[in-house]
Amino acid sequence: MQGNWTGFENRRRRMIERLARMGIGTRVLQAMDRVPRHLFVEEALQTRAYDEMSLPLGLGQTISQPYTVAKMTELLLGGSSQNMRRVLEIGTGCGYQTAVLLALDLPEIYSVERLRPLHERAKQHLRAAGLLAKARTVCGDGYLGLPEVAPFDGILVTAAPPEIPLALLQQLAVGGRMVLPLDEGGVQYLWLIEKTPQGYRETCVQEANFVPLVSGMDT
User: Fold this and answer.
1) What is the distance, to the nearest Å, from the Cα of residue 19 to the centroid of all Cα atoms in its chain?
2) What residues sit in the active site (predicted)?
3) What's the gap between Cα 210 and its chain centre?
4) pLDDT at 3
5) Which among 24, 108, 136, 192 has the fewest CB atoms less than 10 Å away?
6) Active-site positions?
7) What is the mean pLDDT of residues 100-117?
8) pLDDT given at position 195
């Protein structure tokens, strides 16, 4: 892994130990241990990168706290990642969640970001972390997904819509898993959606706090 770890190794180690105490499993911990989170935030905030808190990215966006990233990743994988070959992330943001997915060595990771400045910045961060060559990043409307690449075994949404975008449901493969926050009248909950041959199974996981998912392009 590229990137300057000097001064950050102890903070990263404490983050991993804290997440383990919070119940996160080994595979996700190993992936997060491989990603230099401090490279994905502004330089002035790098000393807080491994703390259990969200941080501002500018443009009204944030990087989620480590536990949220870990929990969403774990929900996406389920009990086994063997069938998780093609994954779509909606909301690249700074690229950190993308990097964690890439660090799992899943075969295909696609990520969509509607804000071009963030899209470009995420590519810079992924390049600094030595992961850009593996990433498939797209500047586009996340509400539409990527129908030309579908179906996806996993879909992870990092911003909160008021209801599940129909296009994303349609792009989820049978046996696939979608993890997303939903804004239910100002209160957000994290949901797991599983697509079975008989239909969709929905599980409410926990309360959440995400920026809104916005439709359309803003370049």
Assistant:
1) 16
2) 64
3) 12
4) 45
5) 108
6) 64
7) 95
8) 95
Query: In the predicted model, what is the mean pLDDT of residues 25-33?
Result: 96
Q: 191 has which bridge partners?
A: 180, 204
Can you give the length of the chain in residues? 219
Give the DSSP letter of residue 150. Answer: -
DSSP per-residue letters across 37-100: GGGGS-GGGGGGTTSSS-EEEETTEEEPPHHHHHHHHHHHHTT--TT--EEEEE--TTSHHHHH
Two structure tokens written together for 56: 């501002």
- How confident is the prediction for the chain on average, in pLDDT? 91
Closest by Cα among 186, 158, 192 to 172:
192
Domain 4-207 in CATH 3.90.1070.20? The answer is no
Residue 82: is its pLDDT beyond 90? Answer: no
CB 135 within 8 A of CB 66: no
**Token representation of residue 191:** 């949901």
Token pair of 33, please?
């241990």
Q: Give the tokens for residue 64.
A: 């989620």
Mean pLDDT of 169-183: 97
Q: Which of 83, 75, 87 is closest to 151 using CA atoms?
A: 87
